[in-house]
Amino acid sequence: MNKDFIDDSMCFVCGENNPIGMKTHFHTEGDTLYMEFNLDKNYQGWGDVLHGGFQSMLMDEVQVQIAGYKGYKTVTAEMSVRFKKPVMTGKLYRAVAKIEKINSRLIETSASIVDEENIVYATSKAKLRVLGPWTGNLKID
Questions:
Q1: What are the domain boundaries of the chain?
Q2: Tens digits of residue pLDDT in 53-70
Q3: Which helix (H) or strand (E) holds 133?
């Protein structure tokens, strides 16, 4: 891959310098990394339902971030998503990720969106291509 991937803090999800971004912070718990979110109607697809593209983006982000937390700079090579229940706008959820397998070129991860009662709304599996050691800023509280 010829492109240098540089963290300029403009990521829509976690970038501190992005004026329209979410500026999300991450937390760890056991072998997982998660972020909390509560998005309003500006992010909906169908009425009061969070657009599936945003759900996918949030799960992608936590999967790349957990690889970063483990010391790897990665890009998503492949990702599958299953939508199980509607994620409603105006409600608190978590996007949670864990690492399933690490080898020298790929990291396999899984993620889910859950509510405060740990009910699963969406799931994802990803294969992340390892570019080298993590060089970005981790926003872990």
A1: 27-132
A2: 999 999 999 999 999 999
A3: strand 120-133
